[in-house]
Amino acid sequence: MLYISEPRYVPRVWGSFAAPWLDTPVGEIWWLFHEEGASSLLRNAEDGHSATVADLVISDELPGKYVYPVLLKTLHTADRLSLQVHPGIGGGSPAKEETWIVLSAETEAWMMGGLGDMDRNLFRELLRTGRIEDALQRINLSKGDICHIPPGTVHSLGPGLQILEVQSNCNITYRLYDWGRTGTDGKPRELHLEKGIEAIDWSTGGSPVSAGSDGRIDPLKLKAGYRISYIEGTLNAEIPGGALFFVSSGSVTIRSGGVDSPACLIADLNGGKLTLSGAGYIIEPGGS
Does residue 101 share a domain with residue 15? Predict the structure, then answer.
C-alpha cells in the first residue's frame, strides 16, 4: 500500500526561497522524517485516511526498530552551508552518511570536500585564522551529479543548488566553521570543534565519493545503508515494501488520482504500484 507524505518546510539562514508563514527563507524540505516525538504525516493513497510514519513503524508496517532508517530532504541554497562533518567512521555509533543528487544547479555551482594531506594541528590553525577554504577541494556540480558523503567527510555546499539528500536517520552534525556568519538571532552559530575534529576520517583525507552522473546511481560506487535506483519514462512501477519513491519530474498516478512532482511516497511492507510519467528515485533501506 502506498502513502503520500506531507512535506515539512525548514527555515535556514542559507535558504533560497521565502515562505509567507516563516521569517527565515526555507533551506530544507523534509519529505520523509521520523524523529523522537515527531514524524511525517501520511495520507493513504487508496482510502485517504491519515497516519504518521511513527504509527506505521510501531505497528510493524514499515521497517525500523525505533525509527524509520532513512531521512529524505531537498536542499535549496542561496548561500553556502557551514563546513561540517558527521560521526560514524569505522562503523561506530552514532553514524550518519548522506548522498547528494543534484536536481538543478546554477552556472559554476560547487561543493567542498576533502582535506588532502593535512594533520589536526594544521587544520585547527587554518580554522583559527579563517584560511580553511584555501585547503579544501572545490568540486564543480552540474545537474545530475551524485556525491556520497561517508561519515568523517568534511564538506560544505555552495549557493545556487537544489539537492535531493538521502541520509541515514541521524540528526548529529558537527559544525566546524561558519564563514563568519550569524544566525537569525544576530549571534554566531554554535560550533562543535572538538567533537568535529574527532569525527573526521583523517585516514582518507575526508573526501566525498563520486557515485554517479546524469542522475543515475553507480551501484559499484555507492556503498551505503540504503539503495537508490533511478527510473524514468511512462511506465508501471512496483515500489518495494518499506521503500520511498521521490517524484523528481512529471507525475505519478495511483489509485486515488495523480500526484505531481516534487512529491514523496512511501510503501508499507506489502509494497505498492504506481504509473509514472516522468522520473524519480526509489530509496530502499538496507545496505547497497
Answer: yes
pLDDT digit string, tens, across residues 96-141? 999 999 999 999 999 999 887 888 999 999 999 999 998 899 999 9
**String of DSSP letters for the chain:** -EEEEPPEEEE-TTB-B--TT-SS-EEEEEEE-EETTEE-EEEETTT--EEEHHHHHHTTSSS-SSS-SEEEEEEEESSPPPEEE-S-GGG-SS---EEEEEEEE-TT-EEEE---S--HHHHHHHHHHT-GGGGSPEEE--TT-EEEE-TT--EEE-SSEEEEEEEES----EEEE-TT-B-TTSSBPP--HHHHHHHS-TTTTS--EEEEETTEE-TTT--SSEEEEEEEEEEEEEEPTT-EEEEEEEEEEETTEEEESSEEEEE-TT-EEEEEEEEEEEEEES--
**Of the residues 197, 217, 237, the one at which a domain ends:** 217
Q: Note the pTM of the prediction, 2 decimals.
A: 0.96
Same domain, 168 and 110: yes
Instruction: Give the span between the Cα atoms of 192 and 104, in whole angstroms.
Output: 31
Q: Give the Cα-Cα-Cα angle 11, 13, 14 (nearest 5 degrees).
A: 100
Q: How many domains does the chain have?
A: 2
CATH code for position 144: 2.60.120.10
Domain boundary among 217, 247, 265: 217
**Which residues constitute the domain of residue 269?**
226-285
Same domain, yes or no, for 57 and 198?
yes
